[in-house]
Amino acid sequence: MMAHMKKSPWVIHYDGSSCNGCDIEVLASLAPHYDIERFGIIHTGNPKHADILLITGSINEQNIEVVKNIYSQMPKPRAVVAIGICALSGGVFRECYNVQGGVDKVLPVDVHVPGCAARPESIIDGIVKATAILEEKKKKMSEEKAKKEVE
Amino acid sequence: MAKRIVIPFGPQHPVLPEPIHLDLVLEDEKVVDALLSIGYVHRGLEKLVEKREFPEYVYVIERTCGICSYIHGLSYCQAIEEIMKIEIPERALFLRTMGSEYSRMHSHLLSMGCLADGMGFENLFMNLFKVRERIVDRMEASFGGRIIQGTCKVGGVRKDIDEESLGSIVTEMESIEKELKEITDVLIKDDSVKHRLRGVGMLSKEDAYELGAVGPTARGSGVKIDLRMRGYAAYDRIKFEPVLGTGGDCHSRTAVRVRELFQSADIIKQCAKKIPDGPIEVKYTGNPKGEYFSRVEQPRGEAIHYAKGNGSRFLQRFRIRTPTFANVPPLIHMLKGCDLADVPLIIISIDPCISCVER
Ligand code: SF4
User: What's the CA gap between B280 and B88, in Å, rounded?
Assistant: First the structure.
């Protein structure tokens, strides 16, 4: 499963407008019982160091700029994992007046992790999938670069 | 006079699991003023009562906050039951009490874990989360879910616990207590932790009272308020005393939480022994007409749920006053005059729950 991983991807977590449920599951997957660190995945607070953005909760009026800002600071290649049904579609709060919808309204989401709250197992699964996507993106980037050099 | 500068703190910050924004006005290293702006997590779920039938709305209210979801559900059901004059069976009341105490334990462990992380004490964070996993596992087995339970409903609870599991809850709790003792001793007695937390974020008893602090923030300063003493659910049949601290600093608030962990463990054991046999829910008919203020003690303090029904399937008005909302004025008070490096710790020490504040 992990054969494609050559480097340790670092993750950053941002809470959109979630209820906290998915956030504490993200925390739980960092802690001993689930422990994503065994895949070399480390949590960071700085977007400039991060490869994967974990985002929980939906998009609203005020956090839309924050989400875009964090994403734009991340170096390429980068991947986005949307966690919980809130981040997928708005979920339980879909009909609330301040909820605009899922994260894919503003960011290109690579992996969707369902659940309310999403279980740590599925979060880990999502992150591992994202690492594969990351490798692919990297390959594509270097191919493009090589092409340019030839030209 | 030193030059004043403004430093933005948040909404995305390494120690904060949730978005909150502070503009810190600094003079050298000292914070002279803190301006709070919120609204990053606002969803507007109170208005959703107009679109969801009242028995169904429990699912939404539980998602006000994923940490104390059980108690939010309980409080809402309590309000509707009071309006509709529904008598809840004894067994359901005991089950609700146990559910609340389990949430309190997992919430306190989470908050202490974040505090340890904020101090840079990674080992302690990991250990606290290890114990928390045992509690969350039990919640999944007995109350319906790791984080969001969905077992409370208007008229009782959905899930019963059989005799055998009640026995294992008691023995398991004893072993959890033993494990907790070892780990929490570090939080209370370790010199470096003491050095980091003592005298940081002072809140005097008078200030705590006047600014309307609630929960461990108030009790850490010696104000005796604990809504459980009012005896909702089955708390009137359980023996316990509010835990009080005296210091009024971050250390005192943490110590209160530590002692409350053991208190909750004790309450759970008492419940498991005293729980009577019988049904766990009652059937009811009709719709709520009238209004009620339901007050409960959450891990972070007093929460108030106001519900008003007009005799239809949909409530007319619903409002929540959450504990962190009440703890924001004391927080701003504590931040004034502190060092910049202490800001994250002080914020975590009130155990903020932003999704509760903004709903
Ligand atoms: S998906 Fe569910 S648990 Fe997760 S943030 Fe949304 S409401 Fe909370």
Answer: 8
Contact B133 A33 (CB under 8 A): yes
| Rounded distance from Cα B172 to ligand 1 centre (Å) | 29
Atom of ligand 1 nearest to the CA of A93: 7
pLDDT tens for each residue of A57-103 = 888 888 888 888 888 888 888 889 998 888 888 888 888 888 887 88
DSSP code for B277? P
B284 and B103 in contact (C-beta within 8 Å)?
no
Is B105 part of any domain? yes
Residue A42 lies in a domain: yes
Range of the domain at A142: 10-150
Across the interface, do A117 and B136 touch by the CB < 8 Å criterion? Answer: no
Any A CB within 8 A of B36 CB: no
Q: Output the pTM of the full model.
A: 0.87
Q: What is the CATH number of the domain that holds B316?
A: 1.10.645.10
Tokens linked to A45: 């607070």
CB B219 within 8 A of CB B242: yes
The number of domains in chain A is 1
Please tell me the distance between residue A84's alpha carbon and the centre of ligand 1 in angstroms.
Answer: 6
Task: Indicate whether B22 belongs to any domain.
Answer: no
Residues on A contacting B at a C-beta cutoff of 8 Å: 13-25, 27-28, 31-33, 44-47, 57-58, 60-63, 66, 70, 92-93, 95-99, 116-117, 119
Concatenate the DSSP letters of all residues of B218-267 into one string.
Answer: HHTTT----GGGG--TTGGGS-------SS-SHHHHHHHHHHHHHHHHHH
- Report the CATH number that the domain containing residue A73 is assigned in CATH: 3.40.50.12280
How high is the ipTM of this complex? 0.81
Check CB contact under 8 Å for A21 and B66. yes
Q: What is the DSSP letter of B276?
A: P
Name the helix (H) or strand (E) containing A113: strand A111-113
Task: Tell me the best of B63, B136, B146, B147 to mutate to test the pocket of ligand 1, counting ligand atoms within 8 Å of each CB and taking the most.
Answer: B63
- Of A53, A55, A73, whose CA–CA distance to A63 is shortest? A55
Q: Give pLDDT tens digits for B105-156.
A: 888 988 888 888 888 888 888 888 888 888 888 888 888 788 888 888 888 8
Domain that holds residue B73: 41-357
Name residues whose C-beta falls within 8 Å of residue A122's C-beta, 6 or more positions apart in sequence. A113, A114, A115
In this structure, is residue B2 part of a structural domain? no
Residue B307 covered by a domain? yes
